[in-house]
Amino acid sequence: MGLPALPTTNPFESRLWPQNWQQRTTVMGVINVTPDSFSDGGRFFSSERACNEAASQLRQGADVLDLGAQSTRPGADEVGPQEELRRLLPPLRQIRRNFPEALISIDTFLAEVAEAALEAGANWVNDISGGQRDPAMLPLIAAARCPVVLMHSRGNSHSMDQLTGYDDVVGDVRSALLERTDAAEQAGIAAEQIIWDPGLGFAKTHEQNLALLKGLETLTRERFPLLVGPSRKRFIGAVLDEPRPRARIWGTAAVACRCAQVGVAMVRVHDVAPIVQTLRMAATLW
Fold it and tell me: For position 29, which CATH number holds?
């Protein structure tokens, strides 16, 4: 399959990035086209529902839409590229038709899925494995010249909760992201394409997630924009004693404030409208 022709200019100055995103904390809206994601599984498991959710998130101020067709919650089974594409491509194509100017990210660690999604109109690739799961991913991103999120993670959905041993979680995550960045640049990916994600909830305990948030300055001092994905996660539930993921919105908002304080480039959330308001207010304070 041939990749779409993308701009050869600096990606930060192209249509592939949100407007003014280097001056504010922007919002990535989550749309899971899966039956089994941890907090919204099945809600958008059709093209029509996913497209309606995209319309709603864009109205509410989402800067990027992140579509995922493979659940990455702890314990989730992997469905493989064909099933992932069967779930993903119809809603992606419909959203692209209805919203030609929208920025769309694809949450996948498989190069076959990423390539087909880019052909269908996606703009970004959000790889939770940082390019580790599929050796074809980084060369694909280099050829596509699109933005890529390199996330810190260990293992897979079945093993990550047993891989939480760190000497210093903030320093170790930084070192691992630098290693993945070096691999990306060796594959031909320009530094201007790369976004970092510390991977909250992926191979981290509740305490380690909080330590990462308290130490975000260590990551925002680096040369790569930072994306943080706290939305509805278990560590928020642990702090708030709230077992219901969809009831963790105010804990998520508190994390978004912390992200705005330290200059995080983007937060990835399910509840777009309240987080957009939260960030707008936080921008007046920091």
Answer: 3.20.20.20
